[in-house]
Amino acid sequence: MDRQPSVLSRFTHLCLCLLTDEHMRETILEDMEERYAWDRENKGPFRAGLSWLSSLLVILATFTLKSIIWRFVMFKNYLRTALRNIKRQPGFSFINISGFAIGLACVIMILLWVQHEWSYDRFHAHSDNIYRLCNPKHPYHAPQTASILEENIPEIKDFARIRPGSECIVEYKEKKFIEKNIAHADAALFKIFSFKFKLGNPESALKEPFSLVISDKIAHKYFGNENPLGKQLTINNSGHYTVKGVMEDMPQNSHFRFDAIATLSNADEVFGKDWMNNWGWENFLIYLEMQENFLPAEVAEKCNRLILEHRPSDAGDPPPDYSLQNLKDIHLFSSHFENDIQPQSSMTYVLIFSAIGLLILLIACFNYVNLLTASAASRAKEIGIRKVVGAERSNLVFQFIGESYVILSAALVISLVLVKVMLPIFNSLSNKTLELSALLRMSTLFPILGIMIITGILSGSYPAFILSGIQPRKAMKASVHIRNSGFNARKICVGIQFTIVIILFCCGFLMFRQIHFLQRKEMGFDKNYTLVSEVNSFESEEKYSTLKQEMLKESVVKSVTAASRVPSDPLNNWGGIVAEGQTKKITLPFVHVHHDYFETLGITASQGRLFSKDIETDLQDAVILNTSAVKALGIQDDPIGQTVEITWPSSNRKVIGVIDDFHFESLYETMKPTVFVPDFRWCRKLLVNLYPSNVHHTMDRLYGVCSRLYEDQIFEFHFLDEKLDSLYRSDRNTFRLLGYFTGLAVLIACMGLFGMATLMMRSRIKEIGIRKVLGAHITGIIILFSKDFSRWILLANLIAWPIAYYAMYRWLQNFAYRIDITIWPFLLAGMVSLVIALLTVSGQAVKVATANPAESLRYE
């Protein structure tokens, strides 16, 4: 035969391979070749080729249609069989469906949370080219840094500085409120970032002096339905700011969120020209819009060189060590900073909770595998009949994998209901506003679809290959027994399930101990019954003294003081200090206080004395250091009376006292060397220490005193211990989430173990009856059936402990002060998991062991 039919034959053979078996394929090819030979001889090669192709198209269409119809028929058959099995075994079906539903619900909620965490700042149009300038310990800089860099580095396209504000009083006509989220920024902010405006021009909104952009929330709060453009808001009784724009409320997935942003175009007037040129005033975040394809490491090196050239040599700062952090990395990769614009998340938690969700789903998969393989005998005749009537092993494999998808589909529907119910609780603990509507996004649907496909294959493949391998002869005689390796595989699955549970138990116990340690650790000062309020301005020391005297008239008020910082605040006011006889100036945190600050906090001097109002020279000549500051200065041998030169305020002072280190910040941070200076000018915090008696009634009276003396200000008191406690709210919520997920994992594992125990007892009822007839005691029977599971759970402990130890060791490194990891949490986790497993298995063992032996021996 010539080349043409040979080519057509090969092409036809390839097409038929997809739709027919070998015997039919050869028959069709022989018939087509005979027809081609006749057509070629009588009609010519061209028409013969056309006839071949037309015949091929008809054959392909026919077989394709038959294949589709046949597959649809088989799908209906598989679906009917799956539904019949669900109905026939409601208990095991409930375990499988509920296990998958809980697992999928956990995965879906965690997926929504992970996607939200990953979405931070990605909505900005130029997010790939926006970078934040960072120091090793914080992202704050002196105000003049940005302009120097922009002028000398061509890779910088534009820049915007942000100075986050503290509490301030905002007024409009008769309305007056304390606002906590007002910042100052350069006009380029809205050019670099893609925040949406409802009113005004983003590019020019902050160009004019005393211009202001407010959020939609603030616009409704102060102006209602009026058009706010052109109206003025008074901030801190000192500046009248004109509203030039209204932006939509900043989305939750932005690493900074402000309610209003004032211009920096008149910063010299607002903050003072001296401060705007002060290299020690590191209070500004700097965002750089970079050119395409620049090298961050090279630009960072240029920044270091430029700042070293322009910064005064006596500024007291260490050599600059800048880095550029991409905007999209800020939220998940900034947990190492001692101070940031707001608490950020961590990639560690994203990985932890992603793993937890997948592990819980894996436990549900193991349940399905165990129960389906353990119940092989109940499906034996069905498998045998299918094989007798011509079903191939591949058909059975597809059937069992299809059944797993039926179970999964039912579980998915239930899981969506669970997500709707549980999402508000999850939002409360994670401090998010996740919505169920996010499931309609393709970025969410595709991962869920992928998880469903992988889960169906993982859970259905092993049982499918095990059950499809049953021999028809044995199946029809009901003599099916899964070989020993299958039984061991089921035990291994149980072991893996409890390995996961034990890991979660260990982590939960250690997290509880660490959080309890944080809440109970001695801080080094009296935090109880101490009220704190931020003050816009005390106006004068005389007026503050009047306020203090009025408060002390209250019988429950023990003491009153003022300071620039109180415990729980970040130590981010840095200044230079050098000891007498030394040339190297070091940079340390400064806290400016009133003379009775330490007495109010219950802090005593370990050396020397504290500040005194009776010694007037303390105001100009005295300074107090903590122990770490003394060591940092190298004057620990004899610090009292030493002269030090400080830059804030610029003066020479004598060390009059040394106090022991105390935990000023959270226990995430080490106790920093700190300088305490008696300078009332910088005090913006009011502290009131109370006797423990009728505290809330006293607070009302204190509000009255404050509002009487400071009519134009609003005071908001909070308890110092509550503020300190709030520093660990995120970890407490993480612990609660871990507790919930651990509980769900235990529930799924126990349901699976219960089903396994039930099937195992059924398969050994005759054995139990014979043992009882021969005199076996109920206790011995229970021990007999419990020891196999106990052995695997003990092995699970040995696997889980090192994994849990490593995970918690890494987590504890986030804390400067942490518990020691001892053996007891691991032993407790092992004991709890073993008891839970034994109770689950023993319940079924007792039921079977107490049955009438006569009934057991008649069991088929």
Question: Mind explaining what this structure looks like?
Answer:
The chain is an alpha+beta fold. The protein has four domains: 75 residues; 203 residues, no CATH class; 303 residues, no CATH class; 179 residues, no CATH class. 54% of the residues lie in helices and 15% in strands. It has 27 helices and 24 strands. Strands 1, 2, 3, 4, 5, 6, 7, 8, 9, 10, 11, 12 and 13 form a 13-stranded mixed β-sheet that branches. It has a six-stranded mixed barrel with strand order 16-17-22-19-21-20. Helix 4 packs antiparallel against helix 23. It is globular, with a radius of gyration of 37 Å. The model has no long low-confidence stretch (mean pLDDT 87).
